Amino acid sequence: MMGTATKQKYDWPMVIGIVLLVSISVVILRSIAPFVFPNYFVYLAIGIIAFIFFSFVSFDILSLFSWHFYAFSIVFLIIPLLIGQVTRGVVRWIPIGPLTLQPAEIVRPLLLVFFANFLTKKIPDLKTLLKAVGLLAIPLFLILVQPSLGVTVLTFMGFVGVLLSTGVNKKYIIGPMIVGVLCLPLLWLVLAPYQKLRIETFLFPSQNPTGAGYNSLQSMISVGSGKLLGRGLGQGVQTQLLFLPERHTDFIFASVAEELGFLGAIVLMLTLFFVLSRIINLTENAQNPAARSFCAGVFLTLLIQVVVHIGMNMGLFPITGLPLPLVSAGGSSLIATMMTLGMVVGARK
Q1: What is the spatial distance between Cα 214 and Cα 280, in angstroms, rounded to a whole number?
Q2: 243 exposure class (CB count in 10 Å sphere: 0-12, 13-18, 19+)
Q3: Is 92 helix (H, G, I), strand (E, B) or coil?
């Protein structure tokens, strides 16, 4: 089924949106973080190949390998715990020559394919839902112990997006949600010290402006200092003088706002939401219920990722370390997002 009805299947507006986002990424990264090149181009080339490949593969074919994807994901998530590269106290990356891969990012679309198929064989009853939650708990645990709370949350929200599109009885969702909200205070007990510090800093950033609150304050300064047209490429004070930390990954939106200004930030946001709107369109025109559920999971995941990243750059959310899809310099995130969007295009009728 690969290559069938190519002209009807291909979504050129999606391609245009992706090209615009990647172009903005290359321009801003060349200005604020030239050291990421040429490795960035290698990740981009892999991402483009993955997008093209999966966009021509029918979702029915992917569905045949859903259990294989799940098994591969579990094995791939275990590998960093055995031979992973330790960076600032976390073990998330596998070194491959000059490059590194973060399995937690790569497996997210594969897990969505699995759960989309698992939960759409019939309308999920309580027994099926409990099985799905049990299967989800394994990869979530493996991601959380790396630790990577942000990716854990995104993986879970992708599952929620899939589940909501299946027509599951809402009482199976509302009940656990109420219990989850009531148990939120207990979550504080299992958070790592740096995660607790991020929440405290979000609530009171000005109490420690040179310590824990530094990142948030510098990000807000960067966003505000760009004004309407920005300081210009290579002219940003916060970015070029390295006041803004992780300017090419966690705070890429603040970098864009400072150097390209309010107009540049608006163009970036409009392009991101244009891509999200294309996912909605493809969801409505998906091949089958499993493909539709997969697209719904992708939409919710990327929407949360975009909103949280921009929000934390503007001081509206705690610092979570989530990259901006297709814009931040993270190679694994770039490859995973391109692969995911390719699958979405391939899910179209």
Answers
A1: 38
A2: middle
A3: strand
Q: pLDDT tens digits for the chain (349 residues)?
A: 454 444 455 789 999 999 999 999 999 999 999 999 999 999 999 999 999 999 999 999 999 999 999 999 999 999 988 876 666 656 678 888 888 899 999 999 999 999 999 999 887 788 888 999 999 999 999 998 887 888 998 999 999 999 989 877 777 777 777 877 777 677 767 676 766 776 766 666 656 666 557 788 888 899 988 899 999 999 998 899 888 888 999 999 999 999 999 999 999 999 999 999 999 999 998 889 999 999 999 999 999 999 999 999 988 887 777 899 999 998 999 999 999 999 999 998 6
Check: CB of residue 326 under 8 Å from CB of residue 249: no
Backbone angles phi, psi at 232, to 5 degrees: 105, 150
Q: How many angstroms separate the CA atoms of 308 and 148, rounded?
A: 15
Q: Alpha carbon of 152 to those of 41, 220, 305, 322: distances in Å?
A: 27, 26, 12, 11
One-letter identity of residue 149: L
CB 228 within 8 A of CB 260: no
Instruction: Please check whether residue 302 is in contact with residue 323, taking contact to mean a CB–CB distance below 8 angstroms.
Output: no
Taking only Cα atoms into account, the Rg of the chain, rounded to an integer number of angstroms, comes to 20
Which residue do the tokens 């290579």 mark?
234
Q: Both tokens of residue 168?
A: 């599951």
Chain center to CA of 129: 24
- How far is it, in rounded angstroms, from Cα 144 to Cα 139? 8
Q: What are phi and psi of 90, to 5 degrees?
A: -120, 155
3-state secondary structure of 249: coil
Phi-psi region of 113 (alpha: psi -120 to 50; beta: other; left: phi over 0): alpha
Q: Give the residues across from 96 on adjacent strands.
A: 99
Q: 226 with 261: CB under 8 angstroms? A: yes
**What region, left, alpha or beta, does residue 230 occupy, with left being phi > 0 and alpha being psi -120 to 50 degrees?**
left
CA distance 149 to 194: 11
Amino acid at 232: G
